[in-house]
Amino acid sequence: MMELRHIAYPRQTVLITSEAEVTLMGKKVEKKNIMTMSWSMPVSFEPWMYAIAVNDECLSLELIRKSKVFCVNFMPIELKNNVLYCGRNSGRTKDKFKETGLKEEECEKIHCPRIKKALAYLECEVAEEIKAGDHFVFIGNVVNAKIKKEGNRVFHKGGDKFTTTID
Ligand SMILES: Cc1cc2nc3c(=O)[nH]c(=O)nc-3n(C[C@H](O)[C@H](O)[C@H](O)COP(=O)(O)O)c2cc1C
After folding, report:
1. Which domains does the chain have, with CATH numbers?
2. CA nearest 4: which of 129, 152, 135?
3. Could you tell me if the CB of 59 is within 6 A of ligand 1?
4. Each residue of 77-100: pLDDT tens digit?
5. Global confidence as pTM
6. Is-contact 127 140, C-beta < 8 A?
7. Run of H or E residues at 36
């Protein structure tokens, strides 16, 4: 039986950062989080828009819905283990900034953390949320973006395997 990974992969894999006040283990906390995402893409030039598909069980869904913003962080292949960790663990039980050692910096145009070691980032404000099966697609207006550094980016091949950009 054909699986999606056979035809749609490798896919560039980014880290989505988000922040909002949520209740975790009975306590109200201002939560900053990181999730791994292979299902994302640019969808409009003018205005510049970017879409991400968020599964219906993750904490990031709650954070993005509440704050109406998210940041897309393009990561170097050297950090593939951090990328895997953020996709295999939930912020409901883990502080992924602390566990991975990834340092944060504050976004400029939105109230949201960004990952310092990202090669590039897109700061997005949610324009629309669309239900698509077991995922929710958030289409964001890109309100700030920067390429900080050239480098080889992370692409997911499936399972715990990654590859990178080759010229
Ligand atoms: C390589 C990789 C790619 C992933 N891509 C996506 C994705 O595109 N969309 C999604 O909803 N979940 C994706 N996941 C799963 C989430 O990252 C995972 O559910 C994560 O634990 C959510 O974290 P949170 O609960 O802290 O928000 C991916 C996981 C891995 C390992």
Report:
1. 9-150 (2.30.110.10)
2. 135
3. yes
4. 999 999 999 999 999 999 999 999
5. 0.97
6. yes
7. strand 27-37
